[in-house]
Design brief:
Number of strands: 8
Strand content: 15-25%
Number of domains: 1
Largest sheet: 6 strands, mixed
Helix content: 25-40%
CATH superfamily: STAS domain
CATH architecture: 2-Layer Sandwich
């Protein structure tokens, strides 16, 4: 397993998928958003990934600027026929995604982002269900 370390993101490959662990506790501010966007896109390029799993275990706060890098990567992956799944969403962060309708609790609902409980569930979801979801 090859690991690359970055400022806001630690990455490795898992079964041909990019797994990125967001290392910042607060996803807010323009500087963080721009840096994270660059890191996410660079990691996708480096790992040549179309399937991405983002781990939010360290994130305690998600401000509006924190959506920008995620939406940017989502648009890119959609354009390439890829997908992204979030794991280990803390309850407060999950609520922000649900209130903004970027993640749905309802199975089969249309929302840009998907979530799974953990890495194994995310890998299974990306492996077994090849159909991309749309916003």
């Amino acid at each position: 397993m090859v690991t690359a370390s970055r400022t806001y993101l630690e990455c490795h490959a898992e079964q041909g998928m990019l797994v990125g662990v967001i290392t910042t506790q607060e996803m807010q501010g323009d500087d963080m958003a721009d840096a994270l966007r660059k890191e996410l896109h660079a990691a996708v390029d480096h790992y040549q990934a179309r399937k991405v799993i983002l781990d939010f275990r360290h994130v305690k706060y998600l401000g509006s600027a924190g959506f920008r890098p995620l939406l940017s990567l989502y648009r890119r992956l959609q354009g390439e026929g890829g997908r992204m799944v979030f794991i280990h969403l803390p309850p407060d962060v999950a609520e922000v995604f649900q209130v903004t309708r970027l993640i749905s609790k309802e199975p089969g609902a249309t929302a840009p982002f998907e979530q799974a409980a953990d890495l194994a569930a995310a890998v299974a979801r990306l492996t077994e269900d090849p159909a991309p979801r749309g916003a």
